[in-house]
Task: structure prediction
Amino acid sequence: MLAIGSDHGGYEMKEAIIEYLDREKIAYRDFGTFGIESVDYPDIGFEVAKAVSEDKFEKGIIICGTGIGISIAANKVKGVRAALCTNSYMARMAREHNNANVLALGGRVLGIDLALEIVKVFLGASFSGEERHSRRVNKIGIIESDDSNSK
Ligand code: RB5
Result:
């Protein structure tokens, strides 16, 4: 099951992605926002990230104007590896090498067709599981869990 959410800057793109998910019968939960009124991207990014980190959702898609703010927010949640992608190569690498569990997109950066292509590639790709990639992803987890890294 997929968790999806956006702020107002990503709302239009979120709706287009939801149309695609409906067409493909891909199960999802929409965490909002539900209109074009201004909202704060950390609120939505956190909700989607928490849902993924608690293993309630397998993957997430988050969208703000640039994809930057919402991915920064999501990456503060333990166990979340949110990847901001602007092309399908990045989307494939995010899954195969980084085992990213959240895709971040910029609603004001990409056209809808490209965004849908990125979503397709991200959802279709898997973590390679190769030793060097597992080792690197595990190191991210170690940094994340090490309290001596916090102020
Ligand atoms: C909202 O205007 C905009 O700042 C937000 O969507 C996003 O681009 C932040 O990174």
Notes: The first strand starts at residue 2 and ends at 6. The longest helix spans residues 131-145.
